[in-house]
Amino acid sequence: MPHSISESQGDGDETPTRLPFPPVTKKHILNCSYHSWHPKYRTLTPKTRLVPLTRPFVDYLRADGIVLPEDDDPPAQMTSDTDSAYVSASDNPDANDDDEDEDPSAQWREVHRAIRATIEELGGAVMPKLNWSAPKDATYMNANTMKCHKPSDIYLLLKSSDFITHDLEHAYDDCVDASEGEQLSEDDIPYHLVLRKANPHWNPSVEFRCFVRDRKLLCISQRDMNYYQFLHKMQDKIQSLIREFFEIRLQNTFEDDSFVFDVYIPQTYDRVWLVDINPWASRTDPLLYSWQELLEMDAPLEEPEDELLQGGFVRLSIDPAKRQQMMDILAKQEAEMQASESVEHAEDSEDEDSAEEDLYLPELRLVHPEDPEAAMFSSTQYSAHKMPKDVVDASQSGNGLADFAKEWEKILADRQRADAAYDSGDDAT
After folding, report:
1. Residue 337 placed within a domain
2. 191 and 211 inside one domain
3. Are residues 243 and 368 in the same domain?
4. Could you give the CA distance from residue 424 to residue 307 in angstroms, rounded to a whole number?
5. Structure-derived torsion over alpha carbons of residues 419, 423, 428, 429, reported in degrees to the nearest 10
6. Which of 31, 63, 307, 328 could form a disulfide with 255 if both were Cys (CB 3.0 to 4.6 A apart)?
7. pTM here?
């Protein structure tokens, strides 16, 4: 999700200071694209399908205005060589050259069919996103939900979202090429539509954002900005689950050393789903942290290695005549040490296990009841992306999302007529 704050604002007239981020490469942004990492981690994610997008479809998303195609394919046009069966446009006064424009999907019908088939494959309801962002800021256009049942639901969300516009127009903002020979441009981005099967039991309270710097898990933040009492009672379990998941699945397998990943811990709270991977960049929302805090946070301590490995090995040259004597002495010492350790082990095993578990758990930051965020329960998110009430009313008129464009055009026409009447009244005076 785009996050626009890239500088820390000083007091008064002080010049803003840029956060001390290392250069963000275009390759890093591309590595965090869903289509790049999903094949490797597919078994760790909720059921998801990717639809490659063609250039005409991407152009449709970028175009101004909202014109939605029919969800079903248009009927095949019947033609005949006989004069009686063929009706030309010149013979039909209602026909015009704009007929093709009425179906915006004419140039990407295969993509439309693939989306429709994928929705059916995933049970009839999906949650859409592009390479990096989901259109969460546009849910007001879809009855305040991300759940889509038809292709037109998806198109309306995508075209109404500023987050999607960021993916399309600003993916490489403030980025550098990894090397002089690497010249990546936004025109080369392979855009994909990501469709995740809608889960009616999905609980946003157990979504977490995890911050990795130099392949070390620094900390974890609650994603949903509301207070949940039960989370505070299972902090240790959440920290342990996510730490184990990271060390086994992501720590040494993801392409970049620093990144941010989102996870979901479903009930019975004994496994972790990978939901998304985000860039280590100011565009990623730090949620309950600040980027200044994350950049300056101390890295976790390295776990101590086995003493034998720390000491290494010493190769000795022993006189063969004294070898047996030396072996007898070493055997006796080894037996005494084992006897002593067996007694101590019985007494200290529980303490050692506890110390090992507590050696390192990443910080988990949750919303507390006294926090300002706790007062946001059921409040509307993304207020910066709200639209006029007329737009919302038109999108929820009950006629279906496919009719929204016509309804909105009518509203615009009424407003234009009212403005014209007002202007003519001013001219008369």
Report:
1. no
2. no
3. yes
4. 91
5. 110
6. 31
7. 0.71
DSSP 89: G
Whether residue 364 sits in one domain with residue 231? yes
Does the bond joining 253 to the residue before it have cis omega, within 30 degrees of 0? no
Q: Measured between alpha carbons, how far is 365 from 220 in angstroms, rounded to an integer? A: 6
CA distance 178 to 220: 28
Structure tokens at 285: 């929302």
Into how many domains does the chain fold? 3
**Residue 178 shares a structural domain with residue 216:** no
pLDDT digits (tens, 9 = 90+) for 263-288: 999 998 999 999 999 999 999 999 99
pLDDT tens column, 127-186: 999 999 999 999 999 999 999 999 999 999 999 999 999 999 999 999 998 776 677 888
Tokens 């019985």 sit on residue: 346
Q: Which of 153, 170, 198 is the last residue of a domain?
A: 198
Can you state the angle between helices 162-169 and 55-62, rounded to 10 degrees?
A: 130
Torsion angles phi and psi, residue 102, rounded to 5: -70, -20
Among residues 167, 198, 229, the one where a domain terminates is: 198
Whether the Cβ atoms of residue 8 and residue 293 lie closer than 8 Å to each other: no
CB 261 within 8 A of CB 232: no
Tokens coding 346: 């019985």
- Strand pairing of 17-18 and 7-8? antiparallel
Say yes or no: 188 and 209 in one domain: no
Name the CA dihedral angle for 185, 187, 190, 194, rounded to a multiple of 10 degrees: 110
**Burial 331-363, CB ≥16 within 10 A → b, else e:** eeeeeeeeeeeeeeeeeeeeeeeeeeeeeebbe
Q: Which residues are within 8 A (CB) of 415 and not within 5 positions of it... i.e. 6 or more apart?
A: none
The domain of 226 spans 199-300+360-381
Q: How many CA atoms lie within 13 A of 32 on its CB side?
A: 26
Q: Check whether residue 205 and residue 191 sit in a common domain.
A: no
